[in-house]
Amino acid sequence: MLSDTHTHTYYSPDSKSDPEDNIKKAIENGQKYIAITDHFDHGMKCGKSDYNFDTKKRNAEFDRLKDRYEGKITIITGIETGQQPLRDVKLSNAGKLTEYDFDYVIGSTHVIDGLDPYEKVWFEGKDMNAAYKRLLETLIANALFWDNYDTVGHFDYTTRYAPYENRILRFKDFPELIDEFLKIIISKDIALELNTKTATRVEPDADIWKRYKKLGGELVTIGSDAHKPEFVGLEFEKYAEFLKSCGFKYTFVYVNRKPVAESIG
Ligand SMILES: [Zn+2]
Ligand SMILES: [Zn+2]
User: Per-residue pLDDT tens for 8-27?
Assistant: First the structure.
């Protein structure tokens, strides 16, 4: 199975997973690597907890696990950073990234106009066209504003929680905005993530992925966004086939911030 580049553990405030259980599940799946990408989201709270973790404590635990599982799997010490086109968020993320040489940095748009679309109120007063237009404008703003990350996490995150009947984000509905977004990330060598947690709820639009390929996009990551160990590698066979059908031969994992190709087969 392709390696999972997006998983959470109890170092994320919205997960209770023991990192070792994620690792065991990844080994059971036959993955060569597993990236653990706990949340850092400036100013965001999960109940009373910040979307942040104690880097030293986490590293100490991961070092023990790296020793224990050496030769069985490579553990990638990653982080999922929340992006907003705001200076204080950028400074805060930059500060977090100085705490350690993370192997891998996901940049994710969770918050649009100060609110996470996970909160249903975000969609109030917006039809699907208005909501997705705002998503794409924010993705473009973030793509222009941000550097120092490796992949765009779940660009279609907003669709997960969208209250519309047919809620697939389609290339044909927003060709200019989607092109603009894709061209910026391609020019910056930032990868695009296929997030299977989103994909299993809202089917990805093949035309977006084919367009990314056509524009010269090669860097693709695949991640389950598992907040529970049983979801590590969620539906990877299905979405590996999907990527293949869109013209991709490889997905990438990042080690020391450098892409390493894995053949889709
Ligand atoms: Zn996320
Ligand atoms: Zn995540």
Answer: 999 999 999 999 999 999 99
- Write down the pTM of the prediction: 0.98
Instruction: Give 153 Cα–ligand 1 centroid separation in angstroms.
Output: 6
Cα 180 to middle of ligand 1, angstroms: 22
- pLDDT tens for residues 232-257? 999 999 999 999 999 999 999 999 99
Residue 81 C-alpha to ligand 1 middle, in angstroms? Answer: 8
* Residues listed for the chain: 265
Task: Determine the Cα–Cα distance for residues 124 and 258; give it in Å rounded to an integer.
Answer: 41
CATH of 19-263, one of 3.20.20.140, 1.10.287.110, 3.40.50.2000, 2.60.40.2950: 3.20.20.140
CA of 110 to the centre of ligand 1 (A): 6
CB 240 within 8 A of CB 209: no
Give me the residue spans of the domains in the chain.
19-263
CA 29 centroid distance within chain: 20
**Could you tell me the distance, in angstroms and rounded to a whole number, from the CA of residue 227 to the centre of ligand 2?**
8
